[in-house]
Write a structure and sequence with these properties.
Strand content: under 5%
Helix content: 55-70%
Shape: flat
Length: 426
């Protein structure tokens, strides 16, 4: 499927029946034909057929980045069960270490999408096997698969599981006898998600790694602790001692996180200051558009109120408010919606400002739908189409939107095209 075969297995090694099943997967007549061949591989007696099937699922899932659905998801429970069975493979008369490593690599990668917290103990056992190996380089694909799986499994784990996992990973990343690549991988889950990382704990061990002479390890530890109180000052001190040419993704991400945090602090200072210039306010608002939260809503609105006739300031603040309102509570949304309604309803203000005041309503649940509806018949089509774009998703106002949209000229302003698309869909 998709012209892909397998990451770890050779089709030529399959038996005759599995070859026929593979032919259906490789060039199916339809989805039914594809699933018939795929399930035949999953249900084969040959571990290589299982591995090819799991690699097919993982590859097909990755095509989602191009907007393609994965038809193999129809049998995801069977895929997950087979993956877990493959993780139990151990060296024996039928499976040498090369087969076992391939089985672990194929199975663990699939659990990135289909795994659960209950899979974590076995995944950690695989890391222990890699750590105990005389040649850890042979386990590179296994380690990569395990950490792909861990990313998904940690998302839904309870605190006790996360604490146990953090402790096991700390045993690996603090072990000076292990390869740097493996230790760096063991540090990586502490950067997946702030809440997950905090539940996994191990802050003292992470702090101790900040000044490790191996910068790849120090940088990965810094990535786990940057912008986290009370460790941020320690991270910044460590980063200040790094050579300017320190390379690597983690080092870049840490320095970038520090720059972003500093930019956010400066933006908030500018918005709060009484003597900030127009240029400074606009630049700060755009920074809050990228990084702001609900605490920035009122300062932003206060900045807008310094000059409600300035369209450039209005556009910058509008974009920032749209982001910050996404997580606001209902009372805050309605309060801000009422103030924005005063702006977009004010006939004395420039059209650009009034349009900017409508835009945050795309964040949803700001109220004022009836006030917006009054703009639908406005003689300035920029206002009418912008209001229609907000209201077209509401069943109560959609008939009115449809009525007024029918009178718009073919070259009505930009939002008109989106409104027409929505009306056609309903």
């Amino acid at each position: 499927m998709h012209g892909f075969t397998s990451y770890h297995w050779a089709v030529d090694d399959l038996g005759e029946n599995d070859q026929r099943a593979w032919a259906k997967v490789d060039d199916p007549d339809d989805v039914t034909d594809l699933l018939t061949g795929f399930q035949a591989l999953l249900r084969s007696d040959d571990i290589a057929a299982w591995g090819i099937a799991l690699d097919q699922f993982f590859y097909a899932q990755a095509q989602g980045r191009w907007g393609l659905d994965n038809p193999l998801s129809a049998v995801k429970d069977e895929i997950a069960a087979r993956a877990r069975e493959m993780l139990t493979t151990v060296p024996d008369a039928d499976h040498d270490w090369s087969v076992v490593r391939s089985a672990w690599a194929s199975a663990s990668a699939v659990l990135m999408h289909l795994g659960a917290p209950t899979d974590l103990p076995r995944l950690l056992d695989l890391l222990d096997a890699a750590a105990a190996s005389d040649d850890p380089d042979e386990f590179v694909d296994v380690v990569e698969g395990v950490f792909l799986a861990m990313h998904g499994c940690l998302d839904h784990a309870d605190d006790a599981t996360l604490q146990r996992t953090g402790a096991r990973l700390a045993e690996l990343f603090t072990n000076e006898s292990l390869p740097v690549d493996l230790r760096e991988s063991a540090l990586r889950p502490f950067s997946y998600d702030r809440q997950t990382a905090e539940a996994m704990g191990q802050e003292p061990a992470l702090v101790a790694m900040l000044h490790h002479p191996e910068l790849a390890l120090a940088a990965q530890a810094a990535a786990a602790l940057v912008n986290r109180d009370p460790h941020d000052a320690l991270v910044r001190a460590a980063v200040a001692g790094w050579p300017e040419d320190t390379s690597g993704t983690s080092a870049y991400l840490v320095r970038d996180a520090i720059r972003e945090a500093d930019s956010l602090v400066r933006a908030r200072e500018v918005v709060a200051a009484a003597n900030s210039s127009r240029t400074e306010l606009i630049r700060a608002a755009y920074e809050l558009r990228d990084q702001g939260d609900t605490t920035d809503i009122d300062p932003l609105l206060a900045a807008w109120n310094t000059d409600t006739t300035d369209s450039g300031l209005a556009e910058a603040v509008s974009q920032a408010l749209r982001r910050c309102l996404e997580d606001a509570d209902t009372d805050t949304r309605h309060r801000i919606g009422a103030r924005l309604a005063e702006l977009f309803a004010d006939e004395s203000l420039p059209t650009d400002v009034r349009v900017a005041a409508i835009a945050p309503f795309h964040a949803g649940e700001l109220g004022q739908a009836d006030t917006l509806a009054k703009l639908l018949r406005h003689n300035d089509l920029r206002l009418a189409t912008e209001a229609a774009w907000v209201l077209v998703d509401t069943e109560r106002h959609r008939p009115l939107v449809r009525e007024v949209a029918a009178s718009w000229p073919a070259d009505a302003p930009g939002p008109a095209a989106y409104v027409r698309e929505e009306l056609e869909a309903h």
